[in-house]
Design brief:
alpha+beta; 6-stranded antiparallel beta sheet; Type Iii Antifreeze Protein Isoform Hplc 12; 8 strands; 234 residues; 26% helix
């Protein structure tokens, strides 16, 4: 056999051996990863469950089933046995297929601040505003806004615009994306965290005048400005 032919055969054999080694190494690494990833069984619902639902009836109907998930993906206070559902009532909705957490139930494990995460000593209030009054619909959860109220008449008998709430956290936004709101001029519903006193002022401003929101820069607080009065009509 010629040397060139022998060299070619040896090269092919070496290439095959190298490919086999890579394949075996990859398989071994994958099997090792699968073994190291512990799987656990949790309970999920086969149907959507609304807030305020008594779970005993659903347990009897057999709507809950076991699901295997990686241990590292388990949610806080996850439910693993139907016994944990007995006597419970949902405080928040539970979607079909999602892991069920005890923080969704009414009682001591209920999420602090509720589903919206309302800060302590605050309340949630929602406003439906035209897009140009709500930063063109570009607001997002965790943003902070300053709220202005504009009234046709003040104690001086002339129009006035003033700060109603200097700094309010955005808890929720609905009404479409910013682009859609800006293009259609559609309404945007914004839910804010305010103190009880601020809530009263905000409701008054919405009912008796007009409300505008301005978006505060990150990590900056709003400023209480002097009221702006209109001209006295002659």
């Amino acid at each position: 056999m010629k040397r060139s032919s022998l060299a070619g055969i040896l090269a092919v054999l070496f290439a095959l051996a190298a490919a086999a080694a890579v394949f075996l190494y990859t398989q071994a690494a994958r099997q090792s990863a699968e073994r190291s990833q512990q799987m656990v069984e949790v309970l999920v619902s086969t149907v959507d469950i609304s807030a305020g639902q008594d779970l005993d009836a659903l347990v009897e109907q057999g709507v809950f089933q076991a699901k295997r998930v990686p241990e590292q993906d388990m949610v806080q206070a996850v439910i693993t046995d139907e016994f944990q559902l007995r006597g419970q009532t949902t405080a928040y909705p539970i979607l079909a297929g999602e892991q069920i957490s005890a923080t969704r139930f009414r009682g001591p494990q209920e999420l602090e601040g509720g589903l919206l995460g309302i800060p302590g000593e605050h309340q949630a209030v929602s406003l439906t505003l035209e897009a140009d009054r709500a930063v063109a619909g570009s607001l997002r959860v965790d943003d902070h806004v300053e709220v202005f109220g504009s009234f046709d008449r003040s104690k001086r008998g002339v129009p006035v615009t003033q700060v109603v709430v200097p700094d309010a956290e955005v808890l929720a936004v609905s009404g479409g994306a910013a682009e859609a709101a800006a293009a259609t001029g559609g309404a945007v519903t914004v839910t804010l965290a305010v103190t009880p006193v601020e809530a009263a002022l905000l409701v008054y401003a919405k009912e008796q005048g007009g409300v505008y929101l301005t978006l505060l820069p990150p990590n900056e607080s709003g400023i209480v400005l002097p009221s702006v009065y209109g001209q006295v009509e002659r």
